[in-house]
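Go through this pair.

…
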Amino acid sequence: MTEENNKINHPKLICTAVGFAMGIAVFVLSLMQKIEPASAITLLALGAALYGVALLMPNK
């Protein structure tokens, strides 16, 4: 058997995961009616910024 050494781009993975988690958190908190609209927009903007950072990172 051959083993492939797949390298994971950890910073890109982390930025993508945190951006996704921000969106899920805002969705759940808005369903529970526990978040202010200004806070929701701030969290969504942070998540979108993290997605942008992840897209700008070069592939290894």
Observations:
- The first helix runs from residue 10 to 31.
- The mean pLDDT is 93.
- DSSP finds two helices and no strands in the chain.
